Amino acid sequence: MNQLTGKHWTVGTPGYDEERLGFQRREPHRPAHIVGATTPEDVQRAVRYAGEHGLKIAVKASGHGHGAPLDGGLLITTTRLNQVTVDARNRTAWVQAGATWQQVIDATAPHGLAPLSGSFPGVTAVPYTLGGGLGLMARRYGFAADHVRRIEVVTPDGELRQAEDDPDLFWALRGGGGNFGIVTAMEIDLFPVPTLHGGSLYYDLATTPDVLKTWHDWTRAVPDTVTSAAAVLPLPNLKQIPTELRGKYVTQIQLSIIPDGLDAPRLVSILRDALGEPLVDTVGELPFSESGRIFDEPGRPDAFSSRNALLSDLDPETLDTIPKLAGPSAPVMCVVGIRHLGGALSQKPAVENAVGHRDAQYSMTVLSPGEDDLRALHDAILAPWSKDIIGRSLNFSMGPLTDDELRYAFEPADHDRLKWLRGIYDPHGLLQANHSIT
């Protein structure tokens, strides 16, 4: 790998640990080699080296989540491959593999444009999109994968390709994750949304026990310009927590509304009036560049795991099981996140892709910090919803999935097609994707 413009680490090389670790600290990768790519050609050389030496390949950008860790093999990091180029006239951006959504937002905001970014701007744009991409404007514009125009990718044979020239490859990459190549850049659509009306309403479940049912009723009547979610979590009694929230078991209603001629304050007031005065209210107009304030998710790297289910609806009676199974009496901290789907998410994109289960109306995720294997606990929390579960989301499944669980992330025929294409593009199984289709 003498021709690399980036860096090369092996075990024991100074900086090895810093380079292999990402946001997700549970079961980190332990590669034999790390290539810190700065150009698409670096990725090519790394892939060819791995192929010649029979090494498994994994990719880390922000490292926000992964399935099975890479043990040995070659890890490609893309943090330095992070250029964002905006074409304001055509409302597109060319985004390299290591760019975070915040970097994309910072580049697009001066033009009054916004990408289909997610709730946490520290996530890297490319892998988020390859997994589908459920963002702050999802009900209005659909999945991020629905608005990808071009993809530059290094396939496992070491060739740098334009995926849109190969309809099968272009279809599979958008929603099928990192199973078919290493994407070095993508061209995405941008939208004329300079501001959002959004933020969070926090309620104490001890005094407002029906907050989830009220929010659910509210979601059934809102227009597609409203994307919202609810998180149920126990907050510790620590000084860094706002005084009003310390030590409480709360529901955080997260609101992202595209103004677009809509009376957004009135819509929020309907919800607020039904629930009463919140403990904390951060809702208001904000520039899209500050959209990370809406969910206000922790930005510190940590070890965590999660399980996800896509639901046909929210049964109001089943909502009562969440505090019982995931509340303060649970053996570990459990954060239950529910996102309202539907709207444009239910529609087929202009160019079809592999994103599955578009008929889901809600997404539910159970997340816990720590190193322990908590699949049994998380599955028990999701079990009461079994009659409503129609699939799962790859991007919200932090931790390894069985083959049957992974199949459940796609429509059956799409999974069969993805499995067949994996054999075409990666016949030797070099790529270890976050969720590997085999």
From TrEMBL:
Pfam families: FAD_binding_4. Transmembrane segments: none annotated. The keyword Flavoprotein applies. Its cofactor is FAD. Keywords: FAD, Flavoprotein, Oxidoreductase. Signal peptide: none annotated. It comes from the Bacteria. Residues 27-193 form the FAD-binding PCMH-type domain. The keyword Flavoprotein applies. Belongs to the oxygen-dependent FAD-linked oxidoreductase family. This is FAD-binding oxidoreductase.
